[in-house]
């Protein structure tokens, strides 16, 4: 399973660049950086050699397509994030025909993911944390998407997004999702286990007893 980082913060991306396979951003994450959007996307593409998702803000298909073409010029690794709407799916179809990769975002049901795949999306992003927040089970939706894509041989890659804790990453891997996009703080937690710390401490103490 590939690991992306879900941030627009350059320091976090630089620190984790050795580990991650790509980057996802969204307007909220970009707004925290207080810098011009395209400048941030260009800098990220210079750090990470993998897909970098940049989101459109137009809500009509022609506007999304125009923004997508402009963003795609920044770097070959730019993937255009498009919201799951009828206009969005029209834009995805047009962009797929032009060879521009898309990541369909704000996906909360397996039917939405089916439509994204049928329209030629390169990636689909079910928001598991927000589904959980609304009283659903985000991972049930991911499991359905995995089954549906396998049934029909869709090549759209599933990005488990809106990840809130390490257990989301574990469940994504168990279900066979292609990618989890993980916030910096959760990536840090993946390395940790209290027994690892206890074990290191004991080994180092015992090592002091070994005659040198
Ligand atoms: O990048 C999209 C998604 O990961 C957002 O997550 O935590 O705002 O629901 P969150």
What is the secondary structure topology, with strand pairs?
Layout: E1 2-6, H1 10-16, E2 22-24, H2 27-31, H3 37-47, E3 52-55, H4 61-72, E4 78-83, H5 86-97, E5 102-107, H6 110-118, E6 123-126, H7 128-133, H8 138-152, E7 157-160, H9 166-175, E8 179-182, H10 184-191, H11 194-209
Parallel strand pairs: 1-2, 1-8, 2-3, 3-4, 4-5, 5-6, 6-7, 7-8
This protein binds SN-glycerol-3-phosphate.
Elements, N to C (H/E): EHEHHEHEHEHEHHEHEHH
Strands, total number: 8
The CA-CA distance between the termini, in Å, is 43 Å
What's the pLDDT, averaged over the residues?
Answer: 98
Helix content: 40-55%
**Main sheet: strand order:** 1-2-3-4-5-6-7-8
Distinct small molecules bound, one entry per kind: SN-glycerol-3-phosphate
% residues in beta strands: 15-25%
- Count of helical regions: 11
Shape: globular
Sequence stretches where pLDDT stays below 50 over 5 or more residues? none
Key attributes of the depicted protein:
212 residues; alpha/beta; 8-stranded parallel barrel; 11 helices; 8 strands; binds SN-glycerol-3-phosphate
Task: Give a short summary of the structure.
The chain is an alpha/beta fold and 212 residues long. Helix content is 52%, strand content 17%.
């Amino acid at each position: 399973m590939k690991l992306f980082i879900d941030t627009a913060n350059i320091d976090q991306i630089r620190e984790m660049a050795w580990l991650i396979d790509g980057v996802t951003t969204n307007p909220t994450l970009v707004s925290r950086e207080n810098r011009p959007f395209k400048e941030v996307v260009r800098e990220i593409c210079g750090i990470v050699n993998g897909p970098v998702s940049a989101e459109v803000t137009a809500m009509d298909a022609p506007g999304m397509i125009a923004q997508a073409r402009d963003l795609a010029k920044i770097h070959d690794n730019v993937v255009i994030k498009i919201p799951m709407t009828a206009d969005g799916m029209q834009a995805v179809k047009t962009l797929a025909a032009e060879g521009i990769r898309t990541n369909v975002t704000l996906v909360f049901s397996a039917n939405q993911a089916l439509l994204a795949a049928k329209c030629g999306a390169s990636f689909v992003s079910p928001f598991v944390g927000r589904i959980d927040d609304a009283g659903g089970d985000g991972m049930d939706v991911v499991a359905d998407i995995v089954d549906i894509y396998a049934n029909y041989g869709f090549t759209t890659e599933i990005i488990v997004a809106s990840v809130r804790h390490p257990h989301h990453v574990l469940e994504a891997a168990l279900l066979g999702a292609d990618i989890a996009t993980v916030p910096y703080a959760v990536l840090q937690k993946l390395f940790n286990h209290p027994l690892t710390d206890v074990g290191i401490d004991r080994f180092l103490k015992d090592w002091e007893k070994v005659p040198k």
